[in-house]
Amino acid sequence: MAKGIYERKWRVQHLVDNDTGCWNYCGKIQSNGYGNHRGYYKKYKGQIPTGLTLDHLCKNKRCVNPKHLEAVSAAENRQRAAKITRDTVDEIRLQYEQGIKQIVLSQQFGLNQGYISRIINKKRWAYANN
Questions:
Q1: pTM to 2 decimals?
Q2: Which residues are 54's β-sheet partners?
Q3: Do residues 77 and 55 make contact, with C-beta atoms less than 8 angstroms apart?
């Protein structure tokens, strides 16, 4: 290794969910709920093309399985993510009122726990279920 160049050793930091095929990242999770999906993509598939972002085909933000990651435009990623409906929001709020914890709802609906919290507190989808 050349002087001054740091080479990071690769460590596997995931557990495989045999039911879904997801590789659930068990290292530090980012504040937005993602695992090290970009690092795994780069390791197994190469650089993310300029101007593209990664979409989790499984809708599991902790998943780092490169087979579940697709490089798409930001517009395509937003369009795919917009599949949450008013009925979904109503169901999330109903289940929360029935005592289902946010972390469980997050896993059930494949949404970040922070987003679940914002739905419940009507900081997102405020007009639904009024």
A1: 0.57
A2: 71
A3: yes
